[in-house]
Write a structure and sequence with these properties.
10 strands; Spore Coat Polysaccharide Biosynthesis Protein SpsA, Chain A; two-stranded antiparallel ribbon
Length: about 210
C-alpha cells in the first residue's frame, strides 16, 4: 500500500566534480542512474517529482517535472522546489547520483513517518543523510527563510522542526552495507561502483560527503 507521501528525485546540481555531465544519465550497471531510482520509486509512490533545471531532457519519462523556484543552485533549493510541488503533505527525497538506493531503506523511513513528523532522516556513524530523507510541507517556511538569507546548509532548519532520526542498526537491517548512501560524485566513484557490481556486490568502501546533484 502506497503511503500519503510523494517521491522526489533531485537532479539540479552542477556536477562540478563530474566534468559537468548530467549524472542522471550516466550509466551504472548497464542503465542510467535515474532508472535505478525509478525502479525503487515507482512501486512506493503515486506522485513522483523530478527537480531539474533542464526539464526537456526528461520528457521521455512519465514524471512531474519541476524547476527551482529560488534562483540559487543548491540541494536545499531543490528540496524546496520538490516539497512545494509535491502532491502529498510529505515527500521522500533522493539525489539522482545514488543508484544503489535500497527499497528497504525507503520503506523503513516511511514506516517511521507519523502525522507529527516534519523530518524523518537516517543517521549513521558518518552523520545524517539529508538527501535520503522525508520532509513535511511544514518545513517550507523555514527553508524559505534560509534561502532568502543565502544560507544553504540543509540541517540549519532542523532545530525549528520535529525531527525523527533513524539509527544505523535499523538501517543496516534493510541495507547491511549502507550502500543506499553511496553517491557517485566523481569518475572514480563510478569506477568503484562498477567494480562493486562486477564483484558480486561483496563490499564497497563508502565515503561520506555531500552529493553535488
Amino acid at each position: 500500500m502506497k503511503k500519503s507521501c510523494s517521491g522526489v528525485i533531485l537532479s539540479g546540481g552542477l556536477s562540478s566534480r563530474f566534468a559537468g555531465r548530467d549524472k542522471a544519465f550516466v550509466t551504472v550497471g548497464g542503465k542510467p542512474m535515474i532508472e535505478h531510482l525509478l525502479a525503487v520509486f515507482q512501486p512506493l509512490f503515486d506522485d513522483i517529482v523530478l527537480v531539474t533545471n533542464e526539464p526537456l531532457k526528461y520528457l521521455s519519462w512519465d514524471l512531474h517535472i519541476v524547476t527551482d523556484i529560488f534562483s540559487c543552485r543548491s540541494s536545499l533549493t531543490g528540496i524546496h522546489a520538490g516539497l512545494f510541488h509535491a502532491a502529498h503533505p510529505h515527500a521522500f527525497f533522493a539525489a539522482c547520483d545514488a543508484p544503489f538506493l535500497q527499497t528497504g531503506v525507503v520503506q523503513t523511513l516511511l514506516d517511521a513517518l507519523g502525522p507529527s513528523a516534519d523530518v524523518v532522516i537516517p543517521e549513521t556513524a558518518a552523520g545524517m543523510e539529508p538527501l535520503c530523507a522525508i520532509y513535511s510541507k511544514h518545513c517550507l517556511a523555514n527553508i524559505e527563510k534560509l534561502l532568502m538569507g543565502q544560507q544553504f546548509k540543509i540541517q540549519s532548519f532542523f532545530p525549528a522542526v520535529r525531527v525523527t532520526k533513524i539509527g544505523e542498526e535499523l538501517l543496516r537491517s534493510a541495507d547491511p552495507d549502507l550502500i543506499s548512501f553511496f553517491n557517485i560524485n566523481t569518475p572514480q566513484d563510478l569506477d568503484r561502483a562498477e567494480a562493486w557490481l562486477e564483484s558480486g556486490r561483496k563490499t564497497i568502501a563508502t565515503v561520506k560527503g555531500d552529493s553535488d546533484v
